[in-house]
Structures are given as C-alpha cells and as structure tokens.
C-alpha cells in the first residue's frame, strides 16, 4: 500500500506535528537555559558586590580579629592566612572558592563560623516572616478582591487609606508604638524577646523555630508562651505586608474584571462570588504569585528592624549586632544569604507563574 506523498512520520504533512513539537522543546530549552544563566549571573554579581563592599569598608578585618595591640608579626601572619597579601583578583578567586564550599568565614563576635551562625538564627526570622505572610495573605487577597468588586465605595476608600498608612509609616515607628501601647500601657502583650524566663532552655532546638519545636516536643505551655511573644511583631509585619497585598490584588483584579470573559460570565448569570474567585482570581494568580514571592523575600529582609526593636534572636538581630561590632564576615555573609533568598524566591515565582498562566509560557 502506497503512502500518500507529503505525509511525514509524525502523521501530518511533511511531519508538521513532529516539527512543531521539536520547536516547542527547543524553545523551552532556550528558556530554561536563559533562566539559569540569569540566575548564575545574578549570583555572581551578588558575590562580586559583597566582595567589593568588604574590601572598600574602612574596617581592617585583621585588626577586627587580633585587635589594635597585636604585634606587626602577628598581623602579617593573619593577613597572609586570610590571603589579604595577594592581588585583588586572587582574593576574589579565593572568596568564590570559599563561597562554593559554604565557607563564609568566622564571626569575630561569636567566634563560630558565619554559616553556622546563620543556620542557627535564620529559622527564627523565617518563623516570624512566614507567620506574618500567612496572616497578610489570608486577609489581603480577599480584601483586595472585594475592594476591586466595590470600586470607589466607602469600603474601598477606607482600605486605600489604611493601606497608605501601613505603606508609609516606618516599621520601627510602628514597633515602638505597639510596645508603648500594648505592653507598657495596656499590659496585654509580653515585652521584648521570644520566650518568657521560665520557659527559656526548656524546649530542645530542632528546627530553630520556637513555636514549632515546642509543638513537636508537646510542651504546649511553652508553645503558648512563644506564640504570645511572636504575635505582636508578626501582626505588625502582617499589617505592613497587608497594605501591599491589598493594593496589588485590587489593581490586578480591576484589570481582570474589565475583560470580556467576565462580561460573558455575568451575562450567563454567574454569581459575583464565583466570578471573583473562579474567573477573576484564576486569571491573576500567576502575576499575584510573583508579587507575593517578592513581598515574602522583603519580609525576610525587613525583620532586621523588627527583630532589633523586639530583641528577637533572628538573622536581623544578628546582622545588627554584627554591624555594631564591625564583624564584616558576619555582615557580608548575612547579606549574601538574604540576596540568595531573593533570587531563589523570584526564580520559584517565575516558574510558578509559567505553570499557572499560559500567556507567560507563550512569552517564554
């Protein structure tokens, strides 16, 4: 039996389906390669930036280690051990090599490797930031959708004013006001710290998150105590984050509600709730995910001031004390970790947007 001319092995004319699949795979491969190159270039730039900052700061790392009373021989030996007597390019190569091995140097303040310190303090910052993000997300997305559905109403205007206040007032000012009102005046919230004195040292550290560790160990008294100390800074950060989430959700939803498919859904008699949650939210989910990833990353960075005011033992307090003690290894290490978190969350958000939004896949 003769095969019709022009039919390729893929079943279409001249193998067109196979050709289209090949082009799609090639396009996806180029997109993945481009994303990986962008991430690597960003990480390299971040490492270069922290290296330059460390070499241009008016703080001698050798003097920070040995003090200003050490002999010239000791200073020279330490400088040689750290590779500071070599050329700048060689120093940068050594810096990159150490980074790839997870070596961020040793902290002058604690005497421990910086990576060990970060692994000890970072979970507490993640606990605070994640709690704030969950609160803000649970409230911010529904409020932003309702504000868009009732555009220019009293409800919408009140939300916009509250959002403007939360976006404008510095976080340390709000933190001090909260401590003054709820702790000093009303006495309904605990003070600074992360645990009461009676519970300190009772919960064995597993994850580094006190509430999680207390729950895993079944110490519910310690869990409630840690939660009470977590509540005020988490609600404070959630309020600031809520302002941004409401604002972005409202803007995205207003654009979505003007689409023709929404007009069609209303013509079919669908309820307002179904239009908002199924059609509206489904349309903006990809873009909203990208914004939420950036907000969460900024929360991890924004815990610096909050942890300092509330004296919570997280990465922010560690970074602040390192700055005060001129501990540049710790400062640069913490800064580098925050930058890596930013890059990672943005990459995950980009992949999530492509999975949720077919238009993003088309642009890729």
From TrEMBL:
<feature type="transmembrane region" description="Helical">
    <location>
        <begin position="288"/>
        <end position="310"/>
    </location>
</feature>
<feature type="transmembrane region" description="Helical">
    <location>
        <begin position="161"/>
        <end position="184"/>
    </location>
</feature>
<dbReference type="Pfam" id="PF19300">
    <property type="entry name" value="BPD_transp_1_N"/>
</dbReference>
<dbReference type="InterPro" id="IPR045621">
    <property type="entry name" value="BPD_transp_1_N"/>
</dbReference>
<feature type="domain" description="ABC transmembrane type-1">
    <location>
        <begin position="122"/>
        <end position="349"/>
    </location>
</feature>
<protein>
    <submittedName>
        <fullName>ABC transporter permease</fullName>
    </submittedName>
</protein>
<keyword id="KW-0812">Transmembrane</keyword>
<comment type="similarity">
    <text>Belongs to the binding-protein-dependent transport system permease family.</text>
</comment>
<dbReference type="GO" id="GO:0071916">
    <property type="term" value="F:dipeptide transmembrane transporter activity"/>
</dbReference>
<dbReference type="Pfam" id="PF00528">
    <property type="entry name" value="BPD_transp_1"/>
</dbReference>
<feature type="region of interest" description="Disordered">
    <location>
        <begin position="1"/>
        <end position="20"/>
    </location>
</feature>
<keyword id="KW-1003">Cell membrane</keyword>
<keyword id="KW-1133">Transmembrane helix</keyword>
<keyword id="KW-0472">Membrane</keyword>
<dbReference type="InterPro" id="IPR000515">
    <property type="entry name" value="MetI-like"/>
</dbReference>
<feature type="transmembrane region" description="Helical">
    <location>
        <begin position="31"/>
        <end position="53"/>
    </location>
</feature>
<feature type="transmembrane region" description="Helical">
    <location>
        <begin position="330"/>
        <end position="349"/>
    </location>
</feature>
<feature type="transmembrane region" description="Helical">
    <location>
        <begin position="226"/>
        <end position="246"/>
    </location>
</feature>
<dbReference type="GO" id="GO:0005886">
    <property type="term" value="C:plasma membrane"/>
</dbReference>
<dbReference type="InterPro" id="IPR035906">
    <property type="entry name" value="MetI-like_sf"/>
</dbReference>
<keyword id="KW-0813">Transport</keyword>
<feature type="transmembrane region" description="Helical">
    <location>
        <begin position="128"/>
        <end position="149"/>
    </location>
</feature>
């Amino acid at each position: 039996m003769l095969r019709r001319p022009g039919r390729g092995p893929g079943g279409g004319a001249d193998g067109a389906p196979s050709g289209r699949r090949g082009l799609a795979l090639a396009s996806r491969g180029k997109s993945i390669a481009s994303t990986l190159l962008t991430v690597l270039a960003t990480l390299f730039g971040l490492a270069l930036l922290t290296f330059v900052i460390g070499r241009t700061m008016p703080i001698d790392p050798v003097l920070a280690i040995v003090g200003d009373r050490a002999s010239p021989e000791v200073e020279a030996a330490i400088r040689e051990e750290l590779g500071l007597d070599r050329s700048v390019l060689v120093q940068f190569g050594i810096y990159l090599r150490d980074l790839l091995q997870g070596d961020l140097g040793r902290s002058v303040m604690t005497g421990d490797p910086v990576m060990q310190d970060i692994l000890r303090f970072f979970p507490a910052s993640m606990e605070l930031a994640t709690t704030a993000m969950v609160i803000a997300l649970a409230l911010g997305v529904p409020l932003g959708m309702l504000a868009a559905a009732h555009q220019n109403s009293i409800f919408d205007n009140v939300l916009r004013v509250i959002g403007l206040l939360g976006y404008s007032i510095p976080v340390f000012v709000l933190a001090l006001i909260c401590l003054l009102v709820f702790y000093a005046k009303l006495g309904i919230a605990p003070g600074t710290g992360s645990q009461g004195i009676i519970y300190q040292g009772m919960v064995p550290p597993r994850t580094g998150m006190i509430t999680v560790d207390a729950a895993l160990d079944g110490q519910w008294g310690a869990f409630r105590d840690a939660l009470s100390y977590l509540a005020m800074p988490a609600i404070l950060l959630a309020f600031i984050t809520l302002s941004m989430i409401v604002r972005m959700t409202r803007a995205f939803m207003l654009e979505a509600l003007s689409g023709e498919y929404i007009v069609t859904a209303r013509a079919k008699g669908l309820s307002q709730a179904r239009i908002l949650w199924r059609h509206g939210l489904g349309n903006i989910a990809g873009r909203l995910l990208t914004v939420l990833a950036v907000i969460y990353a900024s929360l991890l960075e924004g815990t610096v001031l909050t942890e300092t005011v509330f004296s919570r033992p997280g990465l922010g307090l560690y970074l602040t004390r390192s700055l005060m003690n001129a501990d540049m290894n710790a400062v640069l290490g913490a800064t580098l970790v925050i930058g890596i978190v930013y890059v990672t969350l943005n990459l995950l958000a980009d992949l999530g947007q492509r999975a949720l939004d077919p238009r993003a896949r088309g642009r890729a």
